[in-house]
């Protein structure tokens, strides 16, 4: 059971990572980041079977932070959309040197 | 005199007082400045503007009076530090507030306290804006310069070294000429780059000298010298060139970079003409009279005696002497063709300071004494030259030599004083210039005869550039109509130059009191470096020597 | 030092008036202070309290202000109208301090007559430069040589000061003039009295300074200011040599006072490279100060100064300092025959070269200037061949007759100037083509000038005859037997070279007689060319000017009695020889090897040749030159060929300008200042490299910062993989 759980989380994490690296839409990337977070959460839960309760506590923390991040992140994306009429990251390069 | 000084405990409080007075005065001026908001004319009728002038002048006069006792404290033949003060400052880093003067530094302290009142008087009417800030900066600057000369703790030395940098930056940058920002920035960056390398070396030495058990570094001069004497045998091998660079050479180069820029040695001198030209009169005088001496003082106090073997290794020594001689000749030649009188004097400083470096690295007792005399004498005569230029600039608003001509007719007092000061800069016997340059050359000739002979050619060039300039300014036909309206010097200006003239003649005719006071310190400097150089050379492996 | 102490303790002059020798230079210095103070207080208009504010005012009320301060600026120095308000006081102080000095010198001289003069008396005043092994005392030395020089300087100096009272009376810079003149004498006395090379050097440079100030006395004329500057800088080239010689002495002998060096010098060895080098560098100094080839160019230009200055500084005293220095360093030069031959040869060459230029000058002072250069060459021939007494003897007689010639020309110029001034003529008052026939208007000057001319030409009984003859005789004798004859100089045997020098000396004597007679003919004989109106204004100068002339005339006439040769026993023989024996005797003997002078028969022949040459020169001039045919300067035709070359002094000034001055300035300006300083250091290193490298890094860094979040993420991933990979592979 443990091995299957970890394998699933690895697959989820990889999908998320590839999504972050290859997609251009900010919303999609945001979703992929969430996917990676949840993959890690899954790992924590699975491993808490072996190492004790600390992993599950961490999951609560991660979910809390992810919720906050989602709120702020989406707000920023909406603000960018209002400003530039797009959420394509290729057009958002204000930070270039 | 000494008995009286002892009875008032002079030695225990004089040096801290000299540092504290200007700082306190600066605070008073800043408080007064923030209290009086009104923007006056800045002229002599503006009461609010007169306050900082008067306070500063009073402070500097007081400084001079207080410092004059050091003349008796450092008696002829004295070799060690006197008026020593040693207070712990930052305990966890082993930093002390340690002050003291010996025969070398006391002359420079006295030069500083002597020049500063004249500097304030010299800018009495020419500076008319932001007078509070101007005078406060000048006071802080003085504290910094005095601190460098008095410091007996390497860290304190560095702090003071940086303290004086900032006020100068602002003095040039705010009250300077048209290109003042460029000049101020150039000055700042040049000196900063050098002194940062020095900071690294200072920290290294401090940690080396520290207590290995507690890990607390130690920056006191005595311990630093002891630590430097056993600097690691190691170093860096530049495998590409197959050269082994000993650690002491690297450390010496770090100090060298700070001091050589300040001196300034060729080719690190280009900040000087810009800074001199753009600075207000006071800035030029302070730069020329005192700040340039900080570089050579650094060599004689730290760089050379700390690393005698590195400084006096044949390659390094010859290289520096060649740079010094290039400085003498090059500075004179470039000075000759400058259309701007301030720039001319700036390049002549390069030449004079080259002479100092020659004297220091030739390392004979005569040449080192001579180098000290050049430092003092250059402070007086070049300072006076800048004061005089400032005075005529205030009337005519031009530094171009070509803008004048024949003005000896209209301003005879100015012409007379300019001639005397220029002659002292040329090195005419009877003035300080001759005694000092003669000593440098007569001493250097023993160790570097050919280099000294070349630098003696500077004697000819000095006459050429200054007399040519003199001719174009005060002689020749009075053919520019507006020059006929020039007004001669007033009593304030004459009065502030008289002490300088007196000092110029005194040092030229009877320099013995000064020479004998420096003799002990300079002799022990020469002995220590000679011993260190030969001893270290013997202990190094053969390939490195 | 020890030697000095020893001599001081037992010296017969200690405790006598010679202890007061320091007053001799101090008195003129006090005169300088007084006159200088009067000068500056009368010229000064102390400025306003706030010059910045005044500057703004001046813009507004320019006229008021200009009137206020411009009042001090007189119109033209050359055409003054009122006497200076302190003229009376200055006229007393200026000459009086000199007279006092002269009196004191005489007193010390008298004191010396009665005592043994073997060792010099050194009066140490204070320790001047004590540093390391160097101990230079401010000390003055009283010995026969310095006394001779002091007598000449103060004696002739007093006469010239008196003359100046008349000559400069109407000049607005009157106190300034006397201040400079007093200062000059003070430094000159330090020069001749100094007991060590550095103290001598103080006087040496000091007189150079005064020369500079006095040449450029009328500084509003650019030519005068140029001439003063040129004199100072050319002198400085010589001073460079003097300095290096002192460095060599200190490094090798460990002393710089005359006694110390003379004690240590023999240790260096006869004809050793060291002594030769020292002597050659010393001679470079002498060549600068005494206007020898190649540094003679400043002296003719120096005639821009007032004429009494030319007489005092550029004829009688300062320019002879080089001769004095060699006589003073006789103990060194006698050890260096090669250097001696150099001195003699350069002296001979200068004597001849300058004499040829003197042939074709029109300015009366220029003739005398080149004559001075030529006569100085003679003196160097004398001291060069080790005939130190002869050199000094010629120095003394030359001081008499050349001062007379200059002052005489001064009173001629004074008369011409006054005449031109009265008629508002702006012609050249110094050009001989504008003179002529002046003997009718100025009989006293005329007679005295002829005395001096005969003296310089070398006609018997006049002073110059004896001194010149002694030099030429010495050269001839040295060619036969001396240390000089035995060495070779640049491959030429010494004796041959000495014969060449002798021939040059004789030729120069011929030319001297010709150009001096020419000057006299054109100035005093023939018809007057000054102009009709001017003739009525030409007159003899006042007594205060002619008085000193008469005294100098007497000295020029009888000065030869100072050192009569044994051959002509018309008085006491060889007074100066005996007098200078303690100073230069040993050195002279070292050169001659104690050999006797030439045989009597030969000596008569030599004298005969010299006299014949001088008479021939005068006759040639009288026969060939026709003053009647001369036309005033304004109508004079242009010269051609060799005359033009001579008139333009062989174009040496132009050559120096093209070869030395302009290239130096050009290189300084275009290569060093613009190229190296502004170009390489400031532009290339500071601006391009110094700000370029940070910019390059900045540009590279900013390219990485694309702003593409995706790129960042990839970089992040690659980084993670790299770090993980590094850990795994380790």
- Alpha plus pi helix count of chain B: 22
Q: What is the strand content of chain C?
A: under 5%
**SSE string of chain B, helices as H and strands as E:** HHHHEEHHHHHHEEHHHHHHHHHHHH
Q: Percent of residues of chain B in beta strands?
A: under 5%
Strand tally of chain B is: 4
Average predicted confidence as pLDDT of chain B: 88
Strand element count of chain C: 4
Number of helices of chain C: 29
Strand order of the largest sheet of chain B: 1-2
The main β sheet of chain C shows up as:
2 strands, antiparallel
Distance between the first and last residues' Cα of chain C: 80 Å
Report low-confidence residues of chain C grouped into runs of 5 or more. 1-8, 55-80
Q: Strand order of the main beta sheet of chain C, please? A: 1-2
Q: What does this entry look like structurally?
A:
The complex is a heterotrimer of chains A (97), B (545) and C (730). By secondary structure, chain A is mostly helical. Chain A contains 3 helices and no strands. Chain A has a single domain (2-91), classed as Helix Hairpins (Orthogonal Bundle), CATH 1.10.287.3510. The longest helix of chain A has 31 residues, at 54-84. Chain B has 545 residues and is mostly helical. Chain B is built from 22 helices and 4 strands. Chain B is globular, with a radius of gyration of 23 Å. Chain B starts with a helix and ends in a 6-residue tail after the last helix. The model of chain B is unreliable at 541-545 (pLDDT under 50). Helix content of chain C is 70%, strand content 3%. Chain C has helices spanning 2-10, 23-43, 51-60, 62-70, 87-113, 144-167, 174-193, 197-215, 222-253, 258-264, 273-289, 298-301, 307-316, 321-328, 330-333, 337-358, 364-384, 388-422, 443-457, 463-480, 483-486, 494-524, 532-535, 543-558, 575-592, 600-624, 641-647, 652-704, 709-729, and strands spanning 121-131, 134-142, 488-489, 492-493. In chain C, the strands form 2 sheets. Chain C has a two-stranded antiparallel ribbon with strand order 1-2. Chain C has a two-stranded antiparallel sheet with strand order 3-4. In chain C, helix 20 packs antiparallel against helix 22 (494-524). The longest helix of chain C is centred in the C-terminal third of the chain and has 53 residues, at 652-704. Chain C is globular. Chains B and C meet through helix 15, helix 17, helix 18, helix 19 and helix 20 of B and helix 3, helix 4, strand 1, helix 8 and helix 9 of C.
């Amino acid at each position: 059971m443990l091995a299957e759980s970890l394998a699933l989380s690895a697959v989820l994490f990889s999908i998320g990572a590839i999504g972050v690296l290859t997609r251009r839409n900010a919303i999609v990337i945001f979703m992929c980041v969430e996917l990676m977070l949840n993959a890690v959460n899954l790992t924590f839960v699975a491993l808490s079977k072996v190492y004790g309760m600390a992993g599950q506590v961490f999951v609560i923390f991660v979910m809390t932070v992810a919720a906050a991040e989602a709120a702020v992140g989406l707000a920023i994306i909406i603000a960018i959309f209002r400003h530039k009429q797009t959420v394509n990251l290729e057009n958002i390069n204000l930070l270039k040197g | 005199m000494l008995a009286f000084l002892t009875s008032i405990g002079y030695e225990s409080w004089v040096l801290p007082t000299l540092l504290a007075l200007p700082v306190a005065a600066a605070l008073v001026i800043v408080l007064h400045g923030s209290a009086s908001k009104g923007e006056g004319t800045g002229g002599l009728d503006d009461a609010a503007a007169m306050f900082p002038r008067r306070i500063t002048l009073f402070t500097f006069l007081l400084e001079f009076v207080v410092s004059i006792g050091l003349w008796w404290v450092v008696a002829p033949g004295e070799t060690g530090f006197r008026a020593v003060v040693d207070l712990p400052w930052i305990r966890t880093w082993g930093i002390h507030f340690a002050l003291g003067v010996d025969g070398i530094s006391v002359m420079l302290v006295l030069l500083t306290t002597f020049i500063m009142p004249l500097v304030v008087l010299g800018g009495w009417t020419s500076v008319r804006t932001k007078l509070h800030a101007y005078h406060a900066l000048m006071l802080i600057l003085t504290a910094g310069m005095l601190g460098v000369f008095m410091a007996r703790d390497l860290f304190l030395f560095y702090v003071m070294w940086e303290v004086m940098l900032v006020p100068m930056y602002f003095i040039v940058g705010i009250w300077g000429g048209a290109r003042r920002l460029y000049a101020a920035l150039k000055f700042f960056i040049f000196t900063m780059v050098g002194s940062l390398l020095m900071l690294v070396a200072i920290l290294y030495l401090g940690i080396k000298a520290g207590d290995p058990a507690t890990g607390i570094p130690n920056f006191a001069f005595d311990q630093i010298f002891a630590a430097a004497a056993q600097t690691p045998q190691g170093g860096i091998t530049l495998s590409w060139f197959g050269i082994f660079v000993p650690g002491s050479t690297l450390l010496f180069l770090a100090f060298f970079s700070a001091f050589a820029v300040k001196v300034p040695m060729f080719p690190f001198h280009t900040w000087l003409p810009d800074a001199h030209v753009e600075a207000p009169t006071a800035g030029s005088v302070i730069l020329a009279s005192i700040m340039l001496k900080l570089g050579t003082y650094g060599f004689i106090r730290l760089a050379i005696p700390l690393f005698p073997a590195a400084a006096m290794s044949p390659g390094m020594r010859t290289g520096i002497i060649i740079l010094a001689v290039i400085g003498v000749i090059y500075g004179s030649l470039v000075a000759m063709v400058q259309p701007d009188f301030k720039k001319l004097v700036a390049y002549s400083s390069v030449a004079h300071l080259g002479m100092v470096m020659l004297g220091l690295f030739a390392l004979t007792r005569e040449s080192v004494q001579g180098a000290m005399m050049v430092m003092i004498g250059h402070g007086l005569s070049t300072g006076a030259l800048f004061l005089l230029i400032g005075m005529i600039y205030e009337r005519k608003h031009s530094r171009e030599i070509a803008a004048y001509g024949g003005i000896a007719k209209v301003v005879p007092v100015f012409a007379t004083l300019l001639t005397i000061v220029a002659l002292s800069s040329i090195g005419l016997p009877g003035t300080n210039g001759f005694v000092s340059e003669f000593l440098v050359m007569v001493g250097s000739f023993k160790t570097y005869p050919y280099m000294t002979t070349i630098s003696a050619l500077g004697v000819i060039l000095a006459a050429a550039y200054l007399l040519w300039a003199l001719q174009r300014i005060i002689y020749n036909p009075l053919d520019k109509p507006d020059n006929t309206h020039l007004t001669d010097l007033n009593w304030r200006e004459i009065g502030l130059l008289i002490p300088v003239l007196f000092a110029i003649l005194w040092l030229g005719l009877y320099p013995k009191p000064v020479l004998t006071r420096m003799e002990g310190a300079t002799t022990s400097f020469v002995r220590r470096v000679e011993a260190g150089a030969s001893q270290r050379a013997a202990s190094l492996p053969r390939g490195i020597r | 030092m020890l030697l000095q102490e020893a001599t001081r303790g037992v010296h017969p002059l200690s405790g006598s008036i010679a202890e007061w020798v320091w007053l001799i230079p101090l008195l003129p210095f006090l005169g300088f202070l007084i006159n200088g103070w009067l000068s500056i207080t009368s010229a000064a208009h102390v400025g306003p309290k706030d010059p910045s504010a005044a500057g703004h005012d001046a813009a507004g009320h320019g006229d008021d202000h200009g009137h206020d301060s411009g009042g001090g600026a007189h119109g033209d120095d050359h055409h003054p109208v009122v006497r200076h308000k302190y003229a009376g006081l200055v006229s007393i102080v200026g000459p009086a301090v000199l007279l006092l000095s002269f009196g004191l010198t005489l007193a010390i001289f008298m004191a010396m007559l009665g005592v043994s003069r073997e060792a010099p008396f050194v009066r140490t005043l204070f320790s001047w430069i004590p540093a390391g092994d160097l101990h230079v005392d401010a000390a003055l030395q009283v010995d026969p040589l310095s006394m001779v020089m002091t007598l000449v300087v103060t004696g002739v100096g007093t006469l010239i000061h008196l003359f100046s009272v008349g000559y400069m009376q109407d000049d607005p810079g009157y106190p300034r003039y006397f201040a400079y003149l007093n200062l000059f004498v003070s430094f000159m006395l330090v020069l001749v009295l100094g007991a060590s090379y550095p103290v001598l050097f103080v006087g040496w440079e000091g007189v150079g300074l005064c020369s500079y100030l006095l040449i450029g006395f009328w500084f509003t004329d650019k030519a005068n200011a140029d001439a003063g500057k040129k004199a100072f800088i050319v002198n400085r080239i010589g001073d460079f040599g003097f300095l290096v010689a002192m460095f060599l002495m200190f490094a090798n002998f460990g002393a710089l006072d005359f006694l110390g060096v003379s004690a240590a010098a023999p240790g260096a060895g006869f004809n050793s490279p060291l002594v030769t080098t020292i002597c050659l560098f010393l001679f470079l100094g002498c060549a600068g100060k005494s206007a020898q080839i190649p540094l003679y160019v400043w002296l003719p230009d120096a005639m821009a100064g007032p004429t009494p200055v030319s007489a005092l500084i550029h004829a009688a005293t300062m320019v002879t300092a080089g001769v004095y220095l060699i006589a003073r360093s006789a103990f060194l030069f006698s050890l260096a025959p090669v250097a001696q031959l150099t001195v003699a040869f350069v002296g001979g060459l200068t004597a001849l070269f300058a004499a040829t230029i003197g042939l074709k000058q029109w300015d009366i002072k220029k003739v005398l200037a080149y004559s001075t250069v030529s006569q100085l060459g003679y003196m160097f021939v004398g001291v060069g061949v080790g005939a130190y007494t002869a050199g000094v003897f010629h120095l003394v007689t030359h001081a008499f007759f050349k001062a007379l010639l200059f002052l005489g020309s001064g009173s001629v110029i004074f008369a011409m100037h006054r005449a031109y001034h009265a008629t508002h003529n702006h012609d050249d008052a110094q050009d001989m083509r504008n003179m002529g026939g002046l003997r009718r208007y100025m009989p006293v000057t005329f007679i005295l000038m002829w005395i001096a001319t005969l003296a310089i030409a070398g006609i018997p009984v006049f002073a110059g005859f004896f001194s010149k003859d002694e030099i030429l005789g010495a050269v001839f004798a040295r060619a036969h037997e001396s240390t000089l004859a035995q060495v070779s100089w640049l491959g030429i045997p010494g004796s041959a070279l000495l014969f060449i020098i002798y021939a040059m000396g004789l030729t120069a004597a011929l030319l001297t007689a010709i150009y001096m007679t020419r000057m006299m003919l054109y100035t005093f004989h023939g018809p007057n060319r000054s102009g009709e109106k001017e003739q009525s204004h030409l007159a003899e100068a006042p007594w205060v000017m002619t008085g000193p002339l008469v005294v100098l005339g007497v000295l020029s006439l009888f000065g030869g009695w100072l050192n009569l040769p044994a051959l002509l026993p018309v008085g006491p023989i060889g007074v100066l020889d005996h007098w200078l024996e303690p100073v230069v005797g040993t050195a002279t003997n070292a050169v001659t090897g104690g050999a006797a002078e030439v045989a009597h028969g030969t000596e008569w022949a030599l004298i005969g040749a010299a006299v014949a040459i001088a008479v021939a020169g005068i006759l040639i001039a009288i026969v060939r030159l026709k003053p009647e045919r001369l036309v005033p300067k304004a109508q004079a035709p242009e010269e051609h060929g060799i005359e033009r070359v001579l008139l333009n002094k062989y174009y040496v000034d132009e050559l120096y300008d093209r070869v030395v001055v302009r290239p130096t300035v050009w290189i300084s300006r275009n290569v060093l200042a613009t190229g190296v300083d502004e170009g390489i250091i400031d532009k290339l290193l500071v601006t391009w490299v110094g700000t370029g490298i940070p910019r390059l890094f900045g540009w590279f860094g900013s390219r990485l910062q694309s702003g593409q979040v995706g790129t960042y993420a990839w970089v992040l991933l690659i980084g993670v993989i790299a770090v993980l990979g590094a850990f795994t592979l380790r």
